[in-house]
Amino acid sequence: MGYYYFPKSSPRAVKDGIKVKSKRGDIGEQWWSKRFLDALNRMGMDNRLARGRTYARKGQVTSLVIKKGVVHASVQGSRPRPYQVSIALNTWDDKEWKKVISEIADQALHAASLLSGEIPHEIEEIVEKAGVHLFPGSTKDLKTDCNCPDYANPCKHIAAVYYILAERFDADPFLIFAMRGKEKEEFLEELRIERGSPGDEPVPDLQSVDTPVTEPSPLTAAGFYDLKVSLDDFNVHPTAEPEVTGALLRRLGPSPLFVGKKNFSELIAPVYEFAPLYVRRMIHGDENPPSGK
Amino acid sequence: MQYLHACYHPDTPDHLFIFGEDTEHQSPKKRGRRPKNPSTTPHTHALSHDRLIETINRYHPLPDCIEKRSVILRLPGRGGKILMSDEPLTGEDIIFIPTEIPALSIQLSHLTHLLPATDTEQYDGIRFRESITFFRYTFGFALECISRQLFIPSFKDEQISSGQWEAVYPPEEQARREQLSRAMPGICYSFQDMNRNPDQIVKTFINSCITAVIREACRNHPLALHGRARSGSNPAARLLMALWGETGPGSAGDGSGTDEAYRSLKKWLSVLDQEGKTRPFFTGIRLLEPSETDTEFRLEYLIQASDDPSLVIPAEEIWKKKTKTITYLHHRFENPQEQILTDLYKAGQIFPPILESLKRRAPAEKILESGMVHQFLADAVPVLKQAGISVLLPSWWKDSSKNPRIRLSLKSGKRRGKSPKGMGFFTRDALLSFDWEISIGDVTLSPDEFEKLVDIKMPLIHIGGKWAAFNPVELKHALATFHRQYPEGRISVMEALRLGLSGGETKGLTVEIAPGDEKAREFFAPLLGSDGQGVMKREAIPAGFKGTLRPYQETGYNWLSFMTGYGLGACLADDMGLGKTIQLIAYLLSGKENGYLHRNLLICPMSLIGNWQRELTRFAPGLSIYIHHGTARAGDETFEEAIRAHDLVLSTYQVISRDLDLMSRHSWDLIVLDEAQNIKNSSTRQAKAVRALSGDRKIALTGTPVENRLSELWSIMEFLNAGYLGGEKAFEQAYSIPIEKYHDTEASERLQSLVRPFILRRVKTDRSIIADLPEKNVMKRYCTLTSEQATLYQAVVEGMLSEVKDAEGIARRGMILSALLRLKQICNHPDAFLDDGKLTQDRSGKIGLLFSLLEDVLAAGDAAILFTQFPTFGERLVGLIKKTFHEEVLFLHGKTPRAARDEMVQRFAHSAGPRLFLLSLKAGGVGLNLTRASHVFHIDRWWNPAVEDQATDRAYRIGQEKNVAVHLLISAGTLEERIDLMIEEKRALAGSVIGTGEDWITSLSTDELRDVFSLRGELIGGA
User: Disulfide engineering: B646 pairs with which of B173, B508, B626, B953, CB 3.0-4.6 Å?
Assistant: First the structure.
């Protein structure tokens, strides 16, 4: 229980620090970030890791940059100067990467899923076919450093960065691959090359720029009092029926929020029925629909 | 004239500002008080708050919640002076000047009551300018987004409590919104302090409208808000409260945990890619039907340029490119592969078979198993489109001509009762029997064959070598409903016609009417075909007709005969000046000669009786006319006899409603309504009276664009073909409100196709009509004197005759000329002679006629110039026109200063400027170009063609693209008519030669004078 060795100290408060979203319970929403933290826990870090959670929630991490397999972060502890933390995963070598890319490119679905912000569950298996692992398997796979006086690894500061990192993985699955040495752009490009037929020459770029309507438009005498372009062919059908009922909510799926046991999405669903009905009644007479009692 | 405009500022998103200007009144200069904002230039013609309220209330009661505000706008001006909105904005020196203007701020939720009522471009002297039109369209678009469920929750700023609703734009809707943004008039957003980004402004407006309307809807459904939300105890509850527009305990500020909740909601909503960014290309999915060698449908993946939908590149080609960016035909595509993958992944969530296809290295297509095709078409396609994926379908899908239709072969069945004389079996009430079959494209299926297909339950059928969509269940259901509606295979002629025209109202089943026999073909082909009048039987021109029909008039004459021959009421709605009268007279005469029109009634406004009488005598001298009008008109005992003794009974709307008891006891072969817009208000006594008359044939004449004035259309159609358009209330709900208030084009098209065969309207600008018409179409318009006018007239004539008896030379000449002048004044209006300052419409037959003509001119949106010789009368006339029509009238006379004259001419030339221009004949010197006018009225006569032509030519000049209608107003039975006839016939009176001008009149003998001046003929006194 070495960490009782140090006098209890509380970290200095940070303004605008990087906070994790989760205020309670687990950090990391997606299976892959959970899997990442899980992998760390399995290395026997679980107790030490927990110490970083409060730091991560309070926003003690003041900066975090991920570059080619290394995370550099500053974490505000009890001392005035933030500690410098770095975490690195072992990167895959070119041969390994080539294999991984080839395996992933085998099904366009994998890239499609990654691009849509999801890591397919099969990914670990696929990567293993190339003879490597996506998530760290042992402490050998990790190289960490912090300039705090705590000799324990991970210290609170490193642990806090793990949590922030896990949440970054939630938002951008490509970051896990970046930790293995290939950034998103490069990764995508190699997938693209793998996908394409051999021997294709890059096409030189041509410029084509149209003025979008979103540009501010200056006042002109023409079209000041009159329509700038005729709207004669602009047809409105205010009581048109939806092509498919409830399509938007279906596409959105259940919302992350609840009131009691009811999902938010379920609670707004009635609006999609009575608002169109209200418009119809407004237009087809009966301007003041009776209010339900 | 008052112009109303609207503008919108995203900083006050829940309100629309309405403001206006008045062409005549200037706001009084404020004394002693400095303007609130010294840096702005005052707009002297701006309407004050109170006048704005008064003006708007005139056409629609304002809601209570309006607020008096002022807006600082930059308006176009010149030389430090703000220009009126109807002044031409040309020239280099136009600058935009900051101006503070009183405005009314109206909550968007109240626009539902206010904006839509502005459909009529002009109302009672108020003109709604295009900025208001613009917001009306955009508001309608916002309502459409609600109806089509294209909205989601969003946040005004980054917190839960700012929850609102916002529109979601699938690609087509995005294009429509951008179309609006491009069209938005500058004045809508010419605020001094605004970053003018039209699309952003339009988006904010639409979202604010959607939010306002939905909240209003929520207020009407209080139960829909989940009970526990009211406590507002968690972020989701708080957001619900905001979306419902309610305040609760938690709505004051954001509590704990809301930041996180906000972010997770944002992420949840981000699936829909709500940033509204314009994408240069879309991922597309194309459905390919089986080729000749295989049997399966395929989905092909591709990208499609958003600015050129015809530019598509198959995914197969895209996968071959290794670069991040590719260009193709000058189009640049960034990250196309990644875009396709992301979109196909999204598409796969909507239609799982797509996901399946992605398990390949470079997926280019998906082969669909047979059951999937319909699921794809019916369920997935609309959702895919909404998700921003472009779906390309074979042309047969949504090709309505390939939709299954029920085809009815109609045959003569039994008829109820006896058909009126001169009509065959097919009259509106006859019952037809029918056989049915189903037709798909050009293939038809018998009921048996159809049954078999339905049993296979295939959603797509391959028929006649082509694919067609087919929904057996829905179709079977629709068919059952149809048979319930028309049991025993019987349908009435009118109902069949209505189904044939509207395509049927049973959902999912279009009705096609096919003639089963020759009789049915003769009836239905002209009514349902596109070239109706072209295939109508040609009638011989009646022998007794004294005149020539121009080709289009002959068409109208044939059409009237055709329609009424089947008992269908017909509305002849040709533009004024195209000769509705002559077409009707030819028809009337033909009916008489062919022995089916004996008892005929023509109802017109009082002011037109004289004209009808003259025209009938001129073109059909063989027709005897009984004028049922005045105190001596026929009563109970004599009326039947009068009908029998005459070919036509001529009466007025007022008399008909007064004598309704008498009139409705008699039956008619033909009832004609002239100026049928007189019954535009269906609830008036006149309209009710006219509908109570019973006639076998009915015709309505009107010069107003009746198809666009819906309550008028209903009322006239109800007279012509009772019941055809349904009850008035139902009609309002199905058509008037959606069309007039919300610009519902679909409802409008439905209605147009229903009424199309019943209305024949040719306009002066039709190419074919222009070719038929002389460029200058001179028409004599006859009116009668009121009894007051007649009395005065007689007195002046008597006085003059007794004076000139003993006078000679210059004195005699002077007396005659002065009498001539006075008589002309009396013909114009008693006030022009008496100068009693009471210029009213009912005292003069001529003013009555002029006003009923002007009504048509204004209704058709035309402009007119009017000439008179009498400036004082002119000035009073201007006042009366303004009072009656709420139209600004420009008035130019001998004393108008040069500068004012130029300004008037310029304003009249502007398409939004005043539409009526009165000139005193002498003052309107040469050099005036008034070619905007398509009508010229000579209120009084000069009898000098050279002078009159010179005046007329101000409207008719080179460069005039329209034909000009010239109306010469003539008081029947007076010297106006006599002299006109004499000049026309070039008839020499004993001892004098008739020349042009008026001098020759002074050389007439006293007896000749008596002959020319005395009042003659039947008189219609004022009612």
Answer: B626
DSSP-assigned states of every residue in chain A: -GGGGSPP--PPP-SS-B--S--SS----SHHHHHHHHHHIIIIIHHHHHHHHHHHHHT-EEEEEEETTEEEEEE--SSSSPEEEEEEEPPPPHHHHHHHHHHHHTSHHHHHHHHTT---TTHHHHHHHTT--SS--SGGGEEEEE-SS--SSS-HHHHHHHHHHHHHHHH-THHHHHHTT--HHHHHHHHHHHHSPTTPPPPPP-------TTS-----STTSSS-SS--TT--B-TTPPPSSTTHHHHHH-S-S-EETTEEHHHHHTTHHHHHHHHHHHHHTS-SSPPPP-
Rg of chain A's alpha carbons, rounded to an integer?
A: 27
Helix (H) or strand (E) holding B393: none
Q: Does A214 touch chain B (CB under 8 A)?
A: yes
Distance from CA of A124 to the nearest CA of B (A): 17
User: What pLDDT score does B276 carry?
Assistant: 44
Strands of B935-938's sheet, edge to edge? B776-783, B964-971, B935-938, B864-868, B916-920, B889-892
- Judged by a CB distance cut-off of 8 A, whether residue A4 touches chain B is no
pLDDT tens profile B560-578: 999 999 899 999 999 888 8
Taking contacts as CB-CB distances below 8 angstroms, the residues of chain B near A27 are none
Query: Looking at beta carbons, which residues of chain B come within 8 Å of A264?
Result: 236, 239-240, 265
pLDDT in tens, B36-78: 555 677 788 888 999 888 888 877 777 777 899 999 888 888 8
Q: How far is A152 from chain B (nearest CA, A)?
A: 32
How distant is the alpha carbon of residue B697 from its chain centre?
27
Contacts of A282 in chain B (CB under 8 A): 112, 213
* Cβ partners under 8 Å of residue B529, min gap 6: B535
Comparison of pLDDT for B51 and B255, the residue scoring more: B51
Residue of A16, A119, A237, A288 for testing the chain B interface, max B β-carbons within 10 Å: A237
pLDDT confidence tier of residue B444, bands split at 50, 70 and 90: confident
Partners of residue B43 in chain A, C-beta under 8 Å? none
Per the CB < 8 A criterion, the answer to whether B739 and B710 are in contact is yes
